[in-house]
Specification:
The complex is a heterodimer of chains A (267) and B (273). Chain A has helices spanning 12-35, 41-44, 47-60, 63-94, 96-111, 118-125, 129-153, 157-165, 170-188, 190-207, 213-222, 226-254; strands spanning 2-3, 263-264. Chain A folds into 2 domains: 1-44; 46-264, MetI-like fold. By secondary structure, chain A is an all-alpha fold. In chain A, helix 3 (47-60) packs across helix 12 (226-254). Chain B has 273 residues and is an alpha/beta fold. Chain B has 2 domains: 7-87 and 167-272, P-loop containing nucleotide triphosphate hydrolases (Rossmann fold); 95-162, no CATH class. Chain B has 8 helices and 10 strands. Chain B has helices at residues 56-64, 103-113, 118-131, 147-159, 177-194, 205-211, 240-243, 247-272; strands spanning 12-21, 30-40, 45-49, 71-76, 79-80, 88-91, 165-169, 197-202, 214-218, 226-231. Chain B has a 6-stranded mixed sheet, sandwiched between helices. The longest helix of chain B is centred in the C-terminal third of the chain and has 26 residues, at 247-272. In chain B, 44% of the residues are buried. Classes of the chains: A mainly alpha (267), B alpha/beta (273). At the A-B interface, helix 8 and helix 9 of A face strand 6 and helix 2 of B.
């Protein structure tokens, strides 16, 4: 697949090289500034120390159970939040009375900074994964909910009329028209909702937990071990990039029917 | 040249149909269609022509049972409609295919809704896709097809259910002229072999004459109603591209145009207001 246009003149290889160079420069500056004492290593850490911590985590295998917990929390939060958002979104979008009734409360709940619910969830569900999942669910739910709501409202009236003429019953319209249309909107918001599930998991762990990458960071912070904090942040970043990559692959599979702009197939 | 048919005896009938919509900008009710009676006989191809925005689609939606008229009623084979007209198939002006389904699955949708087994529906759909010349495109999604191909899919999607009445709302208006004439010829071929009734809506008088047995002319809106009815006694089978060159075609065209012209001008004047 090729995209037409684009004003970038440099080739892919050169660009990758420049990007690597930029990374190297940033790390180099960090190293020089902390080694010469311009930036206090106590506050800014030292790149080699950070690398060492990461290396030890993976070499000893100490990080894996924590990563697994964070991943499970993310997946559960995403799954539960998406299902709830899909179900309630469909229901409210197709029941004008319920939607009118719930409208101000949905708006209020969406406007509320929901991260602040974490302490309440910790009290309700304890320090295990449930409280993190609950936090992630509140973040994911609204993204999915609003997309489903939009998806149902944006169903083409012609497609709908056509399905009715082809003999679709009310239930069949829900299953064959509204649901696919809504899920396509959910899939297109996959990046945001998976990202939010991840944020929920990590923030939940950071605010109180016994396991997970957020917990490692919390512990290190408690003893002013800034190197470990930064190492945790790096691990989380790489992990998030990996998740995003997987989502991109899944998305490409699920949305094959979506037209892409200005695209020709390579001969 | 006027023929009148009793709506109750026909394959499709509209009886004294009036459609009023809630007023625009608080001007009270907007009456799109007033007191319209028309009928399509079994095996008859009837076209409705009228200026743009005159309420042609409204009439067709009433005939499809998608829209309940304010007064009057729609009948299919003498039976008043209470919901969607189950004996009719509808081909829309704009794209009505499900974008998330590929060609094959779009065509199987109708049988699927009616509870036909998947294997049987698929076999039937493949047969219909072959008939409209789309074999090999089963796996394509609508956005990967050209406008003409999408119309063929829509045609197969409608015809697979074997409806007795075909309702067509300017189905080919978005196509270029060559593709359009090819599609029109294919439609005539499919129709003549099937014995179905067709109610075809268009703003193109040439298209209406070349396809139909009868052409009904509507007045400009609001309060649209039929103002003329013309039997088209051109021989069949017809080739829509060639029939336009016949002298008799031109004569019919002139006769209808005399009635249509003033309405088109009225419609144009209204659209500029």
């Amino acid at each position: 697949m090729r995209k037409a246009g684009g004003d970038a003149k440099i080739s892919g290889a050169t660009l990758a090289l420049c990007q690597a160079g930029l990374l190297f420069a940033i790390f180099g500056a960090w190293y020089v500034l902390t080694e010469t004492g311009v930036l206090a290593p106590f506050f800014f850490g030292r790149p080699f120390k950070v690398a060492q911590v990461i290396w030890e985590w993976f070499a000893s295998g100490k990080i894996y159970p924590h990563l697994a917990i964070t991943l499970i929390e993310t997946i559960l939060a995403f799954a539960v939040g998406s299902l709830l958002g899909l179900g309630i979104g469909l229901w409210l979008a197709l029941t004008p009375l319920a939607s009118a009734l719930a409208d101000p409360y949905i708006k209020a709940m969406n406007a509320m900074p929901r991260v602040i619910l974490a302490p309440i969830f910790a009290v309700w569900f304890g320090l295990g994964i449930t409280s993190k999942v609950a936090l992630g669910v509140t973040l994911v739910f609204f993204i999915v909910f609003f997309n489903v709501y939009q998806g149902v409202k944006e169903v083409s009236p012609v497609v709908l009329a056509n399905a009715r003429m082809l003999g679709a019953s009310k239930r069949q319209l829900l299953r064959y028209i509204y649901l696919p249309s809504a899920t396509s909107w959910v899939f297109s918001s996959l990046h945001t909702s998976v990202g939010m599930a991840f944020v929920g998991a990590v923030v939940g762990e950071y605010l109180g937990s016994a396991k997970g990458v957020g917990y490692l960071i919390l512990q290190a912070e408690g003893v002013f071990d800034i190197d470990t904090v930064i190492a945790g942040i790096f691990v989380l970043t790489v992990f998030a990039l990996l998740l995003d990559y997987i989502v991109t692959r899944i998305e490409a599979r699920l949305l094959v029917w979506r037209p892409k702009t200005a695209e020709t197939e390579a001969m | 040249m006027t023929t009148t048919v009793a709506p109750a005896a026909a394959a499709l009938g509209l009886e004294n149909v009036t459609c009023a919509f809630a007023g625009r900008g608080g001007e009270g009710n907007y009456i799109a269609v007033r007191d319209t009676t028309l009928a399509v006989n079994a095996r008859e191809f009837v076209s409705i022509v009228g200026p743009t925005g005159c309420g042609k689609s409204t009439l067709l939606n009433v005939a499809a049972g998608l829209l309940a008229p304010s007064t009057g009623r729609a009948l299919a084979h003498g039976v008043p409609l209470t919901g969607v007209n189950t004996r009719a198939g509808y081909m829309f002006q704009s794209d009505a295919l499900m974008p998330w389904r590929n060609t094959l699955d779009n065509v199987t949708a109708g049988p699927e809704f009616h509870g036909v087994a998947k294997a049987e529906a698929t076999a039937k759909a493949r047969d219909w896709l072959a008939r409209v010349g789309l074999t090999g495109f089963e796996d394509r999604y609508p956005h990967q097809l050209s406008g003409g191909m999408r119309k063929r899919v829509a045609l197969a999607q409608m015809l697979i259910l074997d409806p007795e009445i075909l309702l067509m709302d300017e189905p080919f208006s978005a196509l270029d002229i060559q593709t359009r004439q090819l599609m029109e010829n294919e439609l005539l071929e499919l129709w003549s072999a099937s014995g179905k009734s067709v109610l075809f809506i268009t703003h193109d008088l040439e298209e209406a004459i070349s396809l139909s047995d009868r052409v009904i002319v509507l007045s400009a809106g609001p309060e649209t109603h039929p103002i003329g009815e013309f039997a088209i006694d051109l021989p069949r089978p017809r080739d829509v591209a060639e029939i336009r060159m016949q002298r008799h075609f031109t004569e019919i065209f002139e006769a209808i145009w005399q009635v249509l012209k003033s309405e088109v001008l009225k419609g144009y004047a209204q659209s500029r207001r």
